[in-house]
Design a protein that fits this description.
Number of domains: 3
Largest sheet: 2 strands, antiparallel
InterPro entries: Flg_Motor_Flig, Flg_Motor_Flig_C, FliG_a-hlx, FliG_M, FliG_N
Keywords: Bacterial flagellum, Cell membrane, Cell projection, Chemotaxis, Cilium, Flagellar rotation, Flagellum, Membrane, Signal
Radius of gyration: 23 Å
Signal peptide: 1-24
Number of helices: 19
CATH class of the largest domain: Mainly Alpha
Protein name: Flagellar motor switch protein FliG
CATH superfamily of the largest domain: Flagellar motor switch protein FliG, alpha-alpha superhelical domain
Distance between the termini: 31 Å
Strand content: under 5%
CATH topology of the largest domain: Annexin V, domain 1
Domain Flagellar motor switch protein FliG N-terminal: 9-108
Order of helices and strands: HHHEHEHHHHHHEHEHHHHHHHH
Length: 336
């Protein structure tokens, strides 16, 4: 499973800077905003090394020409700090301090350097609570890969525990650290951290394979139907329709009455309204605009009900194989 577009772009920027000379990388970073410098530097700090094939691919994209195979480049915190200091001068210290805190204090940060398939080998025999605590600290796409490698029964148990983790106290984290440090790495003790939760579960399932998501949700529906409703509400919201492909939106339009669209689109973002109307005939789009105008002020509860009805139709059509619901990994479409 691929990373999200954001994660991939950030990594490619980091690989590019690591492949350049220190002088050239510094010049590039000096032209970035503080937030951009911090994000890319944090990615560099998290990477131990980059293979020649990946460097070659990134440099080819950057330069527009084929490059010869490159040597392995090393990243790490020291390189990140050096680039920040040279690019930002006197303003470097606060950025370096934040990166050091992110790298050194974030629980399970070392797991990010391990391939998901390797982590699966390690955690598949662990207690679901242990797996849940680990995954609660990791990116959703990474979690989805690990989850897909577990047995269906354990998938359900892990998801249930992630949804209610809430926080992990210092003692619990220390106990887990002692159990894991010999096989992976040591954890950093800290104060209570907010981890896991229903939103994290929704994010994991959003980027999981459809078969994994369906199996978990069906099993959850039998044991905790209220939790299923909460997860579904967070997994796909009405505004996400703007990320759907044109053909899928056209299929959705055929299955939802125009009057429901008129109510559901009241107060929505312009890109979403334009995306929907773009997939209608000119006459139908004009009629929809006119009907939205005639509606005037609409109660928020009515708008939300109309939107939820359309979201439910998205799920129905997806289950029937007629459309594909977008995930965080797919490229968003933009309208002018």
């Amino acid at each position: 499973m691929e990373k999200s577009k954001f994660e991939t772009s950030l990594r490619r920027c980091a690989v590019l800077l690591m492949s350049l000379s220190t002088k050239a990388a510094t010049i590039v970073m000096s032209r970035l905003t503080t937030a951009q410098v911090e994000a890319i530097s944090l990615e560099i700090a998290r990477m131990e090394s980059v293979g020649g094939a990946e460097q070659e691919d990134v440099m080819h994209e950057f330069m527009g020409t084929k490059t010869s195979a490159l040597n392995v480049s090393c990243g790490g915190l020291n390189l990140a700090k050096e680039l920040i200091r040279q690019a930002m001068g006197n303003d470097a210290d606060p950025v370096i301090q934040r990166i050091e805190q992110s790298i050194e204090q974030k629980p399970f940060a070392f797991v990010r350097r391990i391939e998901p398939r390797n982590l699966i080998q390690f955690v598949q025999d662990e207690h679901p609570q242990t797996i849940a605590l680990i995954l609660s600290h990791l990116p959703e796409g990474y979690c989805a890969e690990v989850l897909s490698g577990l047995d269906p029964e354990k998938q359900l148990e892990v998801i249930q525990r992630i949804a209610v983790v809430g926080s992990a106290d210092t003692l619990a984290m220390a106990d887990l650290e002692r159990g894991l440090e010999m096989r992976l790495a040591s954890l950093v003790n800290g104060t209570n951290l907010h981890v896991g939760g229903v939103e994290h579960v929704a994010g994991i399932l959003n980027v999981s394979e459809r078969s994994v998501e369906r199996t978990i949700m069906e099993a959850l529906a039998e044991e905790e139907p209220e939790l299923v409703d909460e997860i579904r509400h967070l997994m796909f919201v009405f505004e996400d329709i703007a990320k759907m492909g044109d053909k899928d939106i056209q299929s959705l339009l055929k299955n939802v009455e125009a009057s429901k669209w008129a109510c559901a689109l009241k107060g929505c973002s312009e890109p979403l309204v334009n995306k929907v109307m773009k997939n209608m005939s000119s006459r139908a789009a004009d009629n929809l605009r006119e009907e939205m105008g005639f509606l005037g002020a609409v109660r928020v509860s009515d708008v939300e009900a109309a939107q939820q009805g359309i979201v439910d139709m998205v799920r129905t059509l997806e289950d029937a194989g007629e459309i594909s619901r977008p995930t965080g990994e797919e490229e968003e479409e933009f309208v002018s």
